Amino acid sequence: MTSALLTDKYELTMLAAALRDGTAHRRSSFEVFARRLPFGRRYGVVAGTARFVSQLAQFRFDDAALASLDFLDSATLQWLADYEFRGDIDGYPEGELYFPESPVLSVHGTFAECVVLETLALSIFNHDSAIASAAARMVSAAGGRPLIEMGSRRTHEQAAVAAARAAYLAGFTGTSNLQAQRSYGVPALGTSAHAFTLLHTGQGDELAAFRAQVEALGVGTTLLVDTYDITQGVANAVRAAGPELGAVRIDSGDLGVLAHQVRTQLDSLGAPGTRIVVSGDLDEYSIAGLGAAPVDVYGVGTSVVTGSGAPTASFVYKLVEVDGLPVAKRSSHKESHGGRKAALRVHKASGTAVEEVVYPVSCRPEVDGRVLTVPLVRSGTPVFDFALDAARARVTAGLGSLPWDGLKLSRGEPAIGTRLVNP
Amino acid sequence: MTSALLTDKYELTMLAAALRDGTAHRRSSFEVFARRLPFGRRYGVVAGTARFVSQLAQFRFDDAALASLDFLDSATLQWLADYEFRGDIDGYPEGELYFPESPVLSVHGTFAECVVLETLALSIFNHDSAIASAAARMVSAAGGRPLIEMGSRRTHEQAAVAAARAAYLAGFTGTSNLQAQRSYGVPALGTSAHAFTLLHTGQGDELAAFRAQVEALGVGTTLLVDTYDITQGVANAVRAAGPELGAVRIDSGDLGVLAHQVRTQLDSLGAPGTRIVVSGDLDEYSIAGLGAAPVDVYGVGTSVVTGSGAPTASFVYKLVEVDGLPVAKRSSHKESHGGRKAALRVHKASGTAVEEVVYPVSCRPEVDGRVLTVPLVRSGTPVFDFALDAARARVTAGLGSLPWDGLKLSRGEPAIGTRLVNP
């Protein structure tokens, strides 16, 4: 299935007009950046780069796609029939943190070949980075305890797959989503639902349900204990599985209070190794609030797949250079800084990040820093290793490098400032 | 591509356990409903029904999918290999309004064949209904003026296609998204971006850009006038296209003030028929706030595709009946009402809605009302006409039937109450 129609109509009408007056072939650079972070956020996490680059190969206009574009002239249709991206792309590796004005992606080629990628690039970066940025806050709030992404049912069915990937990239342990395992190797995890217990109504009820689950999945499984009464549920769980029971899940009520009660009960039943999984409308704040409770695993749904209040990352895709000359919009409130740019991050000797420096590619400032901009695509061919594990390691390193205030969950300013170096 | 792996792992481990103890074959009914509307919302719009039913046919476990399910036993894998949904589905037609506890979808069959559909059903209904519900508020705020959905770049690339459909279903005029036109026949509309004007830097700039666009697309096109200076932009636009220019678009600044200025300028230039399109972070509140401004078309992006503060609809999929007996969770805060249900809506003679009545299917109450629950699928085969135009008409009728308070944008209670009739 082509991804080429996941595109706004105006990209193609602009293309038609530019082909007609010859400007379509001007050498151009477009830049993906965010003028600001979501309100009160202190950092963002770059995600989507690998998905975008991997979709370039499918961004082709086949006959069926062309047939649906009856508003275009024949010269434009012919150009689209021959289209494949042959330009260069630079950008931040996935998993790097970003801040306002960070040039997370730069696309270079003719105006025509770059402009048609705008919608797809922004869809992917705005979605995936919003999820990864929210997920990283949850990972940091969880203080080393594992998190399972289980929000597939709260978002579009395909967005769910990308969301599972983005949450894993940001440090989650796994996902409930089977397609994310198949497509991206994200570990798939799972427990049980209330429906399974209810199914055994009149056939032995909760104890029968637990026995059936243990019979099928082994004593290492996770039993959901809050369908009827939690104390009875925990007792039934240990009765069904024995003290080697893997875990119990609590999905309702005051999770902090219940976790303490259930821990005490499990210990008294001789099951000190049985873990406690909690879920139910968790977000980074409630995760942090459970820090002192005997919780072993957090299951997170709605809040992570909807970006915890910031469902989109406000990235834009702006033309910044034409035939080697910077261009920029001059209208109010939406100024872009012209010219093709790169970025580096300055750190203290301790490793703590100090400043993001964005500079024209041709004049790197004399400052000691780690260059963030790397080649991703050359002449249409990917040249970067997009391994998900490496991206996960970058998130860990990035969070570890933030000044202390940067990890606060409360609303505040970006953790470090961005300095724009003029040519 | 199969949709069968767009599924939480636990659906399949529950299936494995239920197949093993024989409960998998119990006759079951699952119900999709929302315990509450998003905070402060007064109604919701059902969307997703057609997409869900159309995906049933692709919900098949092919060899490649089965190969990825290595955690399942061979009996379960064999069952999945033979799987197709052969049960019945009832529900609200798309475009109907819904309220707390409205049973918008009921799925009947064996436990096994129904439980595996949970994740996909919820993903689709939670996404599409969230978008349609937000979009309907914008349609109502726009007071008859057309709205264009242009938010593809702010959401996952496939979610964008479904969002365009949902917004159109709720009354938008069209979308920027080309795939939505191809897949669902949603009219695709478009203007131009700042990049097109910037592309003409040093080659005649804005006037050259406008001339190129008019040359390619005709004088009926929409010219974007705020790249540099709006007054100059409007002058250039009329100079390039003449007084027959279709429209100008303003994408920044105080849209109310600018719309008045631009209207006056267009009229003074002899272009009273040239329309004004406004865009830029519009939501239902800013749309309503522009009611007195000379705006002809609203372009809406981020807010509609992210549900304007409510990106998911909080639908759940609950087992309500097993072998003819009602079942319900008894744990705190999440009570479900057991038993297979249908619903009707009571209206005054004037047509104004008064009450939603949810009742056991077997005992319809003696009350005069319009039955909302219709057959959608019988023995696995769709039996309902899912035409999008009919769904649009239902939204219009539904909004027209609300009590006056129901259309208020401010936070409040559901527009009508829901009465649950006990068996």
What do these coordinates show?
- The structure is a homodimer of 423-residue chains.
- By secondary structure, chain A is α/β, with parallel strands linked by helices.
- Chain A has helices spanning 9-21, 49-56, 63-67, 74-81, 111-115, 118-142, 157-169, 178-184, 194-199, 205-217, 230-241, 255-268, 284-289, 302-305, 388-401, and strands at 27-34, 44-45, 88-91, 97-98, 105-110, 147-149, 174-175, 222-224, 247-250, 275-279, 297-300, 315-322, 325-326, 341-347, 353-360, 370-371, 374-378, 381-382, 417-420.
- The first copy, chain A, folds into two domains: 9-131 and 310-420, nicotinate phosphoribosyltransferase (Alpha-Beta Barrel), CATH 3.20.140; 143-307, Alpha-Beta Barrel (TIM Barrel), CATH 3.20.20.
- Chain A has 15 helices and 19 strands.
- In chain A, the strands form four sheets. A seven-stranded antiparallel sheet of chain A has the order 13-12-1-5-3-17-18. In chain A, strands 7-6-11-10-9-8 form a six-stranded parallel sheet.
- Chain A is globular.
- Chains A and B meet through α1, α6, α7, α8 and α9 of A and α1, α6, α7, α8 and α9 of B.
CATH topology of the largest domain in chain A: nicotinate phosphoribosyltransferase
Estimate the mean pLDDT confidence of chain A. Answer: 95
CA gyration radius of chain A, whole angstroms: 25 Å
How would the global form of chain A be characterised?
globular
Give the oligomer, counting copies of the same chain as homo and different chains as hetero. Answer: homodimer
Amino-to-carboxy terminus distance of chain A = 43 Å
- CATH homologous superfamily designation of the largest domain in chain A: nicotinate phosphoribosyltransferase
